[in-house]
Input
Amino acid sequence: MGDDRSSRVSAKKVPGRLVEFITMHFLRLNITNKLLLGFSSLLVLLVIISIYALTNLNRLNAINRSIVQTDLPVIHASEKMIDLILAQELYSRRYMVFQTSDMMNILMSKKSVFESLLAQIESVPEKRNFPVEELRLLHQQYFDLLLEGTKSTRASSSSMSPEFEDKIKTHQESFIAVIKAMASEAQQDQLEKTGQTTAIGTIAFNAAKVLCA
Output
């Protein structure tokens, strides 16, 4: 029992003795050494703050680069692709009415633009399993349906047969749903990364404030 008390008392005295030793050693230093010690502490603190700031800056750059080079291009491309799907249907119907090569050329150009947007999504730096191949297949099937629909016009009419109207509408809806899901995923990823940048900035500011206090 007495040994336990003496050990606890000795343990409590150790920090006090250490502080006393450091204080006495510091008081014995001359002015030059005290100044050097003070400047050295500031230098170490400055190095710590600089390293911490650079680390967070690199993280912020990586997140922003991901948003600019992957998320935003996919979101913008998705919006254009939906417009192109609707435009292809429009020009296929105009082709049925006018039966001119100009309308067919416009329809083909819309197809080419859609394919270039798919290539753009496929080339983004981050490979996140965007459904490029599925969209490419759906687009080709959709285009083939439109061309076939132009050949299924009813007698004395410039409109598609009801059968193809239903086929095109059903395929169009499922096609657009896949594109919207891809855009939604990119938007969610963008929101999460924006939240990360805010959190990193707040943590970095608070840490610098503590270190400088």
User: Anything to note?
Assistant: The mean pLDDT is 82. The first helix runs from residue 2 to 27. The domain at 31-212 is CATH 1.20.120.1730 (Four Helix Bundle (Hemerythrin (Met), subunit A)).
